[in-house]
TrEMBL record:
The chain crosses the membrane at residues 433-457. InterPro entries: His_Pase_clade-2, His_PPase_superfam, Histidine_acid_phosphatase. GO terms for molecular function: phosphatase activity. Keywords: Membrane, Transmembrane, Transmembrane helix. Pfam families: His_Phos_2. This is Acid phosphatase. Belongs to the histidine acid phosphatase family.
Amino acid sequence: MYFRLDKTALAAVALAPAIQLSSAETILGAYVFHRHGDRTPKSIPPASLTDLGYVEVLDRGTYYHSRYIASDSPTQILGIQSEIVKLSQLAVTSPSDSVLQNSAAGWLQGLYPPAGAASNQTLRNGTTIEAPLNGFQLIPIAIQSSGSGSESNSWLQSAANCQNADISSNEFFSSDLYNSYESSTKSLYQGLSPVVNATFSESQLSFLNAYTIWDLLNVGMIHNSTTTYPALSNVSDDTMNELFQLANIHEFNLAYNESSTIRAISGMTLASQVLTALNKTITGNGKSPSLNVQFGAYATFLSYFGLANLTAVNADFFGIPDYASSMTWELVTNATVANASSFPSTSDISVRFLFNNGTSAASDNLTAFPLFGGSALELPWDDFVTSTQKFAVTGQEQWCQVCGNTTGICASSSSSSASASSTSSSGSGMSNAVAGVIGAMVTLGVVLGLEVLGLLAGGLRVVRKRSLAAAGAAASSSAVNAGDEK
């Protein structure tokens, strides 16, 4: 049985000293996977980013500006523009989801804030054009089709469209672990009826809805006063802590299982994205993005935590990351680097993994953790590639095989992994271990930050503090009834 620490303990992940760079170290590039900010509950779709959530992601974007972008930062990414964004150096993606897209947009305002007069342009005739909104910088966000509406989708495995992952996650609901908690927590959930009976029936008040119930009450505790909702005063801090621990158990076991790793398909595809993007940074000779950013929700965090064996490093990794959390993979070297277009040999490049638990963290700083059950905070590039390839899903053909899908994008017998062997040249300083990865980037709709959660209908009717109009696609999925999740 997994032991889950409470939310306060989870914040302790960030209490370790922030990583200190040696004076000779250079950061060549980074990949950031980021959770959205505070939102309205999933059980009242469509979920919306709140004003608080907007502030949270803006603050985190500002932190990343100070770490990677600012010209006076000792951890500035090699060659990156410090004031006016150079779009070729930055790649940002998000599923078609209003909460995630708006979070990405707010985060980017912190990463590259309005540039003021520095963004003005002078025309040939001498006219000075002042950029709107004090030099607000327009940065595109690439939208992924898979995972659409994931923050309003109550059963996120369906958003992954991976048949075997769906089956694997549903197996949790017939496991001894699940049945034990379903039985032992019945009275706890039934006792919440006066607080959540506006949308939850008596039959829905059980461990089956562990995350949805906690999520709803968590939002209510943040946004609603007991004057408006007197029933909230009957929910103690101890009860919320217990509900949070149960939600951790529920969600981690839906996102990862050691004996059925296909359940972690979201972490597998994320691993492929990270590997491909970092490899392109290395081999791009300064022409590929050096900072890659993807927004997604917590199930992908949990899947990757399990796959990368981070749970062996700290039991807090069994827990749900808080709003605005992020995990980052940095390319670092101690070799002398002349400029951004002359990277060192891959034998001189390492990867460092860092995590920050968002609004639960005692510090804004990222904290380094060893990957894959090891002890080293920095892994040689080739070792990182070898370990990641053990579980990364690196192509459409492989995705179809492991998922057991035979329809849609998997229907054609000619479907392949984008010719993984066609770009096996190592003439760009690429190690043999990396050579087979370059062409294996999963196609749109497969290479995604997929989520592996089971979220159900119901919830307290909280005040909905919306922030930002939906930028692009509106989240339209409605909640799934408890009976639909087996």
